[in-house]
Every structure is written in C-alpha cells, then in structure tokens.
Write a structure and sequence with these properties.
The protein is α/β, with parallel strands linked by helices. The protein binds adenosine-5'-diphosphate (ADP) and zinc ion.
C-alpha cells in the first residue's frame, strides 16, 4: 500500500495519534472486511471511514441522513486537501451535474450521498461506471425501527447495494448500543460477517456535574457570564422555558440564540448557523436541537431541567467537547423536573406499553440524580460498560465543597411542617418560618405556632433553596400532584436525631485550563479568516489546536507542524498568518520559549540539520517554470512557490512525486498543480548534465540552504543595516514590504535601536496618516488585523505598518 494510515492522519488531519478504537477499526477496513462500529457521540467515527477512503483504490460513498451536516463535512475535507463532494436535494441542477461529472472524471475520493438519492437512475448510471471502494453508512441506527431515529429511506440502502455488480466493502457507524438496533443494522444492511466494534462509551473529557437545590436562574446567568467566550448549549424541557431563559440572557447582554420547534424553519437555520460560526456563544434549546450539529468546540452543555431518560441525556452532553478538550456538563435539578417529565410522558403517548417503558427510563434517570457516588460509573453501567473505581471527574467524585452539619436547621423545617398539619407548598412554609404576615397564614393562625419566625436569619430565596436541597436529598418528600411538601420516614429520623443532615456546598470549578490572551488573539485571527472564507471557525483550526499553539509558541513551520490539528495543507493555507501573530505576541510580552531537551535529545538535535547547496543553473530554470505558472494563473510568483522551495529543489534533485513530498513549502495541493512540470525540469537537467544525484530523505530535519542559518527576519535586518533598499530586499527575498516594515518595527521595539535609516514616508499617503493614527490609538498598536478592518479598504497593510513604524521610532526618539 502506497501510503499508510498514520501518514494520512498526520498529513491531512494533522493529528498525531489515533483515539481509542480508531486504529483497529481502520485496520479491519483496510483488510477488506465489513465493519460495524459503535462509538459514542464525539468519539471520532468519521475518521474511521475517511482514512481508509484515502488509502483504498476507488471512491468511497458515505450515506448520511443529515443534509445540514453534509456540506460541513465536505467543506472540512476539502479544506484539508481531500477532494470530496455531496449529493442531496439542496443542490441546483447545475451543481448536481458538476458533481456527477466529477465522479466520472475520478475527481473525488469521497462523496456524501443522501439515502433517497442512492436509488435515482442518474446516480446509479454514473456510479456503476467507477470503482467503489467502500460504502460507509453513518448513523446506521436509522435503518432500525427500534432506534430513536428511524428513516424509511435507509431501507433503500441494501437495494442499492444489490444493484451493484461488484459488492464493495460495507462499513456502518452508530452511537446507539442496544442489541435490537445492532441486529437490525447487521441484517437490514446485509453486512457480511462483519467485525463488530464497541468502543467504550466513556467520554473522559466531559466533566459531569449535577447541581441540586439552587436558584436555577441565578446559577445559570452567573455561569454563562463567567464563560462568555466559550460556546455552550442550554437545554430546557419546554418551549416556554427556552423563551424565558432566552429573554433572561438577552437582558444580561449575552450573545444568545434560541431553537425550538415553535420557530420558523428560517429562524432555526439562522440561529444554528450563527452558533456554528461563533457569532453567538450560547444557544438555548429544547431537545429538538443538536442532531445536525457537528460543532467540535462546544465547551459546555447545561441542562436547565433533568431530561427524561439517560439515553437522551448522554447524547445531549455528548455534543460537548467533540474535539477532545476538557468540557463541562451541568444539570440543574429540582424535584419539579420530575413532575414536568411525567406530564410530558402523559401527553406524548397513549400506548400503555410505551408509557410504562418511558416511566421506567425516567425512574432510572431520577436514580442518577440521587446517587451519592460516581455519576459516570452509573451512566456507563447503564449502557452495559463496566467501570472500575471512581472517575474523579464528576461532581460526586470531586465535590470539594465543605461538608456542613445542617441538622438543626433541618429539624426546624421539619417540625414546622409537622405543626402545620396539612401539607403546604414551599412558599407557605417559608412564610411561617420567616414570620410573614400574609393573610392566608394569619387566617390559618400559623402565627401562633412555636416555629413561627424561627428562621428569620435566612432570606426568602435562601430558605427556599435550603428546603429544595432537603427535598433533593430525600429528607422531605414532595407530593407531585399538588406540589406540596410532606414528611417521610427519614424526616422523622432527623427529628429524633437518628440521622444527621450533612450537606456539601455546591461548588463548580471549571476544569478548563487557564488560557492566556494569545489564545484570544489566535481565536480572533481564526474568526477573521473564517469570515473571509465563509467557513465555520472550527474548520480553520480547532480549539485544542489554538490552545496548544498558545502554550508552545511555535514560530517555524517545523514547530507548528508538531501541533495537533496542523496538517500540510492547513499549514500552507494558514500557517504563516498564525505564526505571525505568535511571533508578535512573543516579542510584545518578552517571552522566552523554553525548549526543554535533555542531553541525549540535544545531541540528536545537533545533527538534526539538513544541509543543501542550491544549484544556480537549475534554479534559474525552475524560476522560469514558476513564471510560466504565475502568468497562467495570474498569481504573484512567490505565491506559486517560494524561492526557498526552488532553491531546495535545485540542490536536491527530486525526480519523482514521492521525493517532492519531502521538499519544504510544497504540499499535496501544490504538488498536484506544479509537481509534474518541476519533476520534468529536474529530470531533464539531470540527464543533460549526466548527473547521478543520490537521494537523501530530509524527513523533518531543519533545513539549511547554502549555509544560511539565519531566520528570515534576521536576514532582512542585516540587509537593512547594510544600507540595502527595501524594494530590493522585498523583490529578492520575495517578501512583502509590509512584512519588512513589521520586522523592522519589532526590531526597534525589542532592541530600542532605531539607527537604521529608511525612507518610511513613501509607503503611505500623507492624507491618510491621521486616520490611520486614530485607528492605531483606538485599537492598540499591535492589533494590525483589527486596525486594518476598521479602516477603508483602500488603506493597505503597507501604509498601516509604515505609520506604526513611524510612531514607534518617534516615541523612541522622545524617550
Ligand atoms: P463522531 O462522528 O463520532 O461524533 P467525529 O468523527 O465528528 O465524531 O469526531 C469528533 C471530533 O474529533 C472531530 O473534530 C474530529 O476531527 C476529532 N478527532 C477524531 N479523531 C481524532 C484523533 N485521532 N485525534 C484528534 N482529534 C480527533
Ligand atoms: Zn465520578
């Protein structure tokens, strides 16, 4: 096999290792065996069929029920340099034909197809003309009536497969674990002797918190306000709740969206898109939201109410942290939630068997809320996974809150209820304990009770909260029909001092790492690129990738390629821009990158250089080839290939595509476009000159061309120092004047030396100086991108950089 799975993982996806289960699944697929893989939401299913798709000979068809997701997935793949397309009802006839042509011309490795399209004549006619390597069925549980998401169109999949002359490999993926569903998938999709994988259901990066007896609204607003930069979903049980939380957050100036079945389709799509593009940070939704959402950087899922069953709960919290980064799940529980859910079950179905089943599931859900040990263990065991010990990442395992003895206060409440004789709601109990003069209370003569006013030190809300906590922990009961509070066996034990009431303070500590403001800067850049490319920000780089950059400060290609999530194509597209921001940050904050190496490693690094001497004659020829492309494509030559890349080629003589991959600055896309011509040129040169160059792999060693060990900015400054013209340097080194001015600015800032004399004035229009200065003052001198955005388009980077440089020199002169 030409290319191996790890290589694909690194080069295209930029990831350094497989997640649990992925590797075995991929191996089995590569061996040619049908596979059914059951993995939790966010476990990384797509990679399991995408990697084989790239390695196997032929095209992979991915069947997926979610039209809204197809475009995202295809965009993501294309942005990594993997040619793919989708076919569904959202395409115009023209677009549809484009894709069909692409299939015939073998342009794609992967196509996503909606199940109802599979059986169309057009599709079958075309697809039978090409070799199909794999049919991957996503959300395979949709084929089963037992699943929660049955789709009739999934029944057509096996009919489609039967129509193919040669049966390709069939792979199926789902997050639903039940036995019935699993059997249905194997039988209805006619999988042949499939290897079945059930990877564990644990999602270690999710912290599971359940919070009881608090003022939900207060908690919610606080939490959201403390996490405004993060993406989160708030689930509420009813539309009414969604609306009221939405209004509440709006009032608190939170950038919030909403989603429920009562909104128009357009409104829902708009809210969803704004959320995916990080334009709103929070979305409040009923459980109708989420199926079409693949956003990997959701940092928290907050349940305002307890959901109706554990399946739903786990699926919903599973939408947090798909990118593997630490994320939080918080459920706010009050006993009233149980009443709401029972009501929803009552109105949802007439069928007594289904009703019964739903009540049973609700009971298991409520059971989770009340347990005193590890939540994760309970959930995983519910799904049939065994779990040893405690997870250390749920609020029961972690609760560091101080334990307080609240027995006496509890006794006061209990004896008050006892003395009130009939059962009342929490409001009345609170009124009695706090000595209210409400009419009903007085008419019932509760002011005569010995417990009247014995808890005045509590606020009204505080006391309500306390009683709710007693209920949540089972020290009191609620009558669900009337919402009244009643005593139970445990209440009496408390009164008799047989049971102590020990309560922990609730205390949710974020498990997310503190992130420095470089992270914010990188995030800003990501947002900017996403907007200009009309893509979701996560398609540029994931949160984890930005976080790693903000910790490791990569400033070279080599270093940034080491960051998880940075593959070759992404590097080519965005690498330099991110590096620039990182460099600015390092200089600005005087950060010394700590390179921790032990001695052995240091020695290895010593001879980790790869030296190349360029060949002037061949270089000239290559430059001509490049010029040809630049003219044809109407691009600046340096955008086609950098001079350094050509120099490296001229000194190493790569004469096939494989060798070319080892050259810096030429990723798969560029190889596809220019590779052939370059190889031809190299080959011709070798033959004409009777050369027999030996090929040595560079791998990822640091490259030194013609003995040059200085970095680009160093060379620029040296040349400026020697009195060379900016224009000459720019042309010769193929870097923009604006970049050179930036290097110079950084140099002055870090050394204080402004003795190099250059003519800055010619790079900006005097008339614009004031406008630019204003933008600089308003946004801060280092926020180049923001400054640029705030100015009219005709003011170029070059002018901004020049004015900045001027003001830096000016302030040095004055100090
Ligand atoms: P699922 O379909 O199982 O819910 P996805 O396939 O959407 O999950 O993957 C969830 C996220 O995890 C995606 O952002 C994906 O890029 C990322 N991911 C998958 N595999 C890896 C890996 N080996 N290393 C790092 N990230 C990964
Ligand atoms: Zn736990």
């Amino acid at each position: 096999m030409a290319i191996d799975k790890l290589e694909v993982l690194e080069r295209y996806f930029g990831y350094k290792s497989f997640r649990r289960g992925q590797e075995k699944i991929i191996d089995e697929i590569l061996r040619g065996r049908d596979v059914l893989a059951i993995m939790p939401t966010g476990g990384g299913k797509s990679l399991c069929y995408q990697i084989p798709a790239l390695i196997l000979d032929g095209i992979t068809i991915v069947v997926s029920p979610l039209i809204s997701l197809m475009k995202d997935q295809v965009d993501t793949l294309n942005s990594m340099g993997i040619n793919s397309a989708f076919l569904n009802s959202s395409l115009s006839t023209y677009e549809f034909n484009e894709v069909i042509n692409g299939i015939i011309n073998k342009k794609y490795k992967i196509i996503y197809v909606a199940p109802e399209r599979l059986l169309s004549n057009e599709f079958i006619t075309v697809i039978t003309q090409v070799k199909i390597a794999q049919i991957a069925i996503d959300e395979a549980h949709c084929v089963s009536q037992w699943g929660h998401d049955f789709r009739v169109s999934y029944k057509g999949i096996s009919t489609f497969i039967d129509k193919l002359i040669e049966r390709p490999l069939i792979t199926a993926f789902t997050a639903t674990a039940s036995e019935e569903v699993r059997n249905d998938i194997v039988n209805l999709l006619k999988l042949r002797d499939p290897k079945i994988f059930v990877t564990g259901f644990d999602r270690e990066n999710l912290r599971i918190n359940i919070v009881k007896g608090i003022d939900k609204k207060k908690f919610l607003v606080n939490y959201v306000k403390n996490n405004t930069k993060d993406s989160g979903i708030i689930y509420a049980a009813t539309r009414r709740d969604v609306e009221s939380i939405y209004d509440l957050l709006k009032k608190n100036n939170i950038n919030v969206g909403r989603y429920h079945a009562g909104l128009s389709n357009d409104e829902r799509i708009k809210c969803q898109e704004e959320f995916i593009n990080d334009e709103t940070s929070v979305i409040v939704a009923t459980n109708a939201f989420g199926m079409g959402i693949d956003k990997p950087n959701i940092r928290y899922v907050l349940h305002y109410n307890m959901p109706k069953n554990i399946e739903g709960y786990y699926q919903e919290i599973g939408r947090a942290g798909r990118d593997g980064e630490a994320s939080e799940c918080i459920m706010l529980f009050s006993p009233a939630d149980v009443i709401t859910q029972k009501y929803l079950i009552e109105v949802s179905t007439e069928d007594p068997i289904r009703k019964n089943n739903q009540y049973k599931k609700l009971q298991q859900m409520t059971g989770l809320v009340y347990i005193n040990n590890c939540y994760r263990k309970y959930i995983l065991e519910y799904f049939g996974d065994s779990y040893e010990g405690e997870c250390g990442n749920c609020s029961n395992c972690l609760n560091k809150g101080e334990v307080k003895d609240k027995t006496i206060d509890a006794q006061k409440v209990i004896s008050c209820i006892y003395k009130m004789k009939r059962n009342f709601g929490i409001g009345m109990i609170v009124d009695v304990l706090r000595a209210s003069k409400n009419k009903k209370l007085l008419s019932l003569e509760f002011d005569e009770l010995s417990t009247y006013g014995i808890m005045k030190e509590y606020s009204s809300n505080g006391l309500k909260e306390f009683i709710n906590i007693l209920i949540a922990h089972g020290y009191l009961d609620v009558n669900e029909e009337y919402g009244t509070v009643a005593l139970n066996n445990i209440s009496f034990k408390v009164i008799k001092d047989e049971v102590k009431v020990l309560l922990k303070e609730v205390n949710i500590e974020s498990n997310r790492t503190e992130i420095n403001d470089l992270f914010d800067k990188l995030r800003l850049l990501r947002q900017e690129i996403a907007q200009s490319e009309k893509k979701a920000p996560y398609m540029i780089f994931g949160d984890g990738t930005l976080r790693e950059m903000s910790i490791k400060y990569p400033t070279s290609k080599l270093e940034i390629l080491e960051v998880s999530g940075v593959g070759e194509v992404k590097y080519d597209r965005y690498g330099e821009r991110f590096i620039e921001v990182i460099k600015d940050y390092i200089i600005e904050n005087n950060i010394k990158k700590e390179i921790v190496v032990d001695k052995e490693e240091a020695e290895e690094i010593e001879d980790d250089y790869f030296e190349v001497n360029s060949n002037k004659e061949l270089l000239e020829k290559l430059i001509k080839v490049r010029e040809g492309f630049a003219r044809k494509l109407n691009l600046p030559a340096s955008m086609v290939l950098s001079k350094n890349t050509l120099k490296e080629i001229s000194g190493r003589y790569p004469n096939n595509l494989d060798k070319l991959k080892d050259i810096g600055g030429i990723g798969p896309k560029k190889i596809e476009s220019y590779g052939k011509s370059i190889i031809e040129e190299v080959d011709k040169y070798i033959i004409e000159n009777g050369l027999d160059p030996t090929w040595k792999e560079k791998k990822r060693k640091k490259l030194i061309i013609d003995g040059e060990t200085r970095g680009t900015s160093e060379i620029v400054l040296d040349r400026l120092n020697m009195g060379e013209d900016i224009e000459d340097i720019s042309e010769d080194m193929e870097i923009s004047i604006s970049t050179i001015l930036g290097y110079f600015t950084d140099y002055i800032k870090s050394t204080g030396d402004y003795s190099i004399n250059i003519n800055i004035d010619k790079y900006y229009d005097k008339e614009h100086e004031e406008l630019i200065l204003e933008a600089i003052n308003k946004n801060g001198i280092d926020k180049i991108q923001v400054i640029k955005k705030s100015l009219p388009d005709y003011i170029k980077y070059e002018a901004i950089r020049a004015v900045i440089l001027k003001s830096v020199i000016w302030s040095k002169e004055r100090s």
